[in-house]
């Protein structure tokens, strides 16, 4: 097998490692490409190409994450990971870990860790690497990596909800929620929303957003019920779609361009959080991106035409 063939076989794994460390599709793709260039330039072939390339892409990702820390701290408004529609890497033996680590909630918890803790956690808890391989990848001793893993696991466990909804339950409830959303049924929406539900968006200052978000079942239900009819009248479409391994949706304009994505955090039979990614810089990997400002303007005009006085927020 040639170097290129070996690399292509490992590309899904390398991307999945990099994405979980970085929370960015574009940066993960760049890290994988840089790993290939280094592999291609190396004089000798490693004993284990998988171990070597996993270590290389991890080191690159750690360096990128360190340089991105300040940018994320200064980011205008809430920062969410770039939405990922499907994980290219599959491993039946670790399917639960892979799925859990891909959610927006888990990736936001990972943001609280140091770059080294994050890398060690991803390699150990998500992909099941041994500590000798992890130590080589992050440039620390095995003992230090074990300590990093313990700290990272503790921080992650402290932030996770105690009881997770199973996949079938989540999909069933998400279907009911999206049906109620399409129907503009305030009562049905209110019933499906947690009392302290949070509707929040990431625009990066480059698209409309809900300020600090909308909080509470009644307010969120009313915002959602008022949102879709005028959006649909200008040709907008809500496409149910799994996003980051969670129930969610992709909003598109009349020409099929992406407006934003939603992910739904579901727990205890209710929607706890709705996260919208509207920043166009985070949507480009999904295809052509719509002008969200124009969409809001056109939606508002459609709403005014039917004598609804309140200007809608961005979907």
CATH class group of the largest domain: Mainly Alpha
**Fourth CATH level, the homologous superfamily of the largest domain:** PhyR, sigma-like (SL) domain
**Level of helix content?**
40-55%
Please identify the structural class as seen in this structure: alpha+beta
How many domain modules? 2
- Cα shape: globular
Order of helices and strands: HHHHHHHHHHEEHEEEEH
Per DSSP, what share of the residues sits in E-state strands of 2 or more residues?
5-15%
The counted number of beta strands is: 6
Q: Largest beta sheet: what is the strand line-up? A: 2-1-6-5-4-3
* Regions with little confidence, pLDDT below 50 for 5+ residues: none
CATH topology of the largest domain: Butyryl-CoA Dehydrogenase, subunit A, domain 3
Description:
The structure is a single chain. With 315 residues, this protein is α+β, with helices and mostly antiparallel strands. The chain folds into two domains: 3-159, PhyR, sigma-like (SL) domain (Butyryl-CoA Dehydrogenase, subunit A, domain 3); 167-305, Nuclear Transport Factor 2, Chain: A (Roll), CATH 3.10.450. The chain contains twelve helices and six strands. The protein has helices at 3-22, 25-41, 49-73, 95-102, 104-110, 115-126, 131-138, 142-159, 167-183, 186-192, 217-233, 292-305, and strands at residues 193-202, 214-215, 237-240, 248-252, 258-267, 270-277. Strands 2-1-6-5-4-3 form a six-stranded mixed sheet. Strand 4 (248-252) and strand 5 form a beta hairpin. The radius of gyration is 21 Å and the shape is globular. The model has no long low-confidence stretch (mean pLDDT 93). Residues 7-69 form the RNA polymerase sigma-70 region domain. Keywords: DNA-directed RNA polymerase, Sigma factor, Transcription, Transcription regulation. One of its GO terms (biological process) is DNA-templated transcription initiation. Pfam families: Sigma70_r2, Sigma70_r4_2. Belongs to the sigma-70 factor family. ECF subfamily.
